[in-house]
Design brief:
By secondary structure, the protein is α/β, with parallel strands linked by helices. Helix 1 (16-33) runs antiparallel to helix 6, helix 4 runs antiparallel to helix 7 (238-257) and helix 6 (218-234) packs antiparallel against helix 7 (238-257). Residues 1-8 have low confidence and may be disordered. The chain contains 7 helices and 7 strands. Strands 3-2-1-4-5-7-6 form a 7-stranded mixed beta sheet. Helix 2 (58-64) links the parallel strand 1 and strand 2 (71-76). It is globular, with a radius of gyration of 19 Å. It has helices at 16-33, 58-64, 129-138, 167-178, 194-200, 218-234, 238-257, and strands spanning 48-52, 71-76, 92-96, 111-117, 139-159, 204-211, 262-274. Helix content is 33%, strand content 24%.
């Protein structure tokens, strides 16, 4: 039974479908950007790297074979979506961790690189500073933080044919954000402020990349968006969930008729800072 979103620590799901969404999202993200670790970050030597909110662990697993001498540690409040420990590469480990709570002493100042991605629907009250302060505790002096997000405020709606309407897609995208007054995770606005937030907290911002998705990938991004919205629906109260189910069904019918020619484009942001 669906509950009020304010009672959920995580507004998305952890099902097989949710894991497939995370993996597709990762591969599209990586192909669009062309890197796992930003080129400005040194990758030589026996490094220790932490992936926060690791989910299925797919980012670490892609990295494991490129950096075989590097220790790669994945952290998530729930590691049930990651492969069993017996199937992980020898340089990859997964650990449960609530990154909003006190950081365990054995992790303080341990990592050369900390990677975090897509926490815009996790951060509460449009304020990522508590999270950032804990990420900094994980870093060694001189360590690097790579933070990737989608900026929902940059969303644009595009059609392959000027005769097509994006109205049903707009309705699907806007409905969760209309609930932002009760749960700001549904309508995050802090992403473009990350470089300034880095500087405020003592990180030197080395790079800030942001760009929309390529047109050829937009149908795949639409698949990811709809799966995300379905997961959000399951965390809404019963009245909102019922309303949203109707909105999503309407868009699904229209999108099929439009031959997947209607899409939402959202800017990807990657901000790199040095401690």
């Amino acid at each position: 039974m669906a509950n009020d979103t304010t009672s959920h620590e995580y507004v998305l799901g952890r099902s097989f479908r949710a894991s497939a969404r995370l993996n597709l999202q990762h591969y599209l993200w990586t192909q669009e950007l062309g890197y796992l670790i930003h080129p400005s970050i040194p990758q030589e030597g026996k490094l220790q790297i932490a992936d926060i909110g690791t989910g299925t662990g797919v980012w670490l697993l892609d990295l494991a074979h490129k950096l075989p001498l590097t220790q790669l540690d994945g952290f998530d409040i729930n590691i049930s979506q990651a492969p069993p420990a017996e199937w992980l590469p020898s340089n990859v480990k997964m650990y449960p961790l609530d990154v909003f709570a006190d950081i365990p002493p054995d992790l303080l100042g341990k990592y050369d690189i900390v990677h975090i991605r897509l926490f815009m629907c996790v951060v509460r009250n449009n304020d990522p500073e508590l999270l950032l302060k804990n990420l900094l505790k994980l870093l060694k002096p001189g360590g690097w933080l790579q933070w990737g997000e989608l900026d929902l405020q940059s969303s644009t709606f595009v059609t392959a044919n000027p005769l097509l309407s994006a109205d049903s897609l707009k309705d699907a995208a806007i409905f969760p954000r209309s609930l932002g007054s009760t749960d700001t995770r549904m309508d995050p606005s802090w992403v473009p402020s990350l470089p300034e937030i880095f500087e405020k907290n003592g990180l030197r911002t080395v790079s800030c990349d942001h760009k929309p998705h390529s047109l050829s990938h937009l149908p795949f991004m639409n698949d990811i968006n709809v799966m995300t919205w379905e997961e959000m629906k399951d965390s809404m109260n019963s009245k909102d969930a019922q309303t949203y189910a109707s909105i999503l069904a309407k868009f699904g019918e229209f999108n099929e008729k439009a031959q997947r020619g209607v899409a939402m484009n959202i800017e990807k942001w990657v901000v790199v800072g040095k401690k």
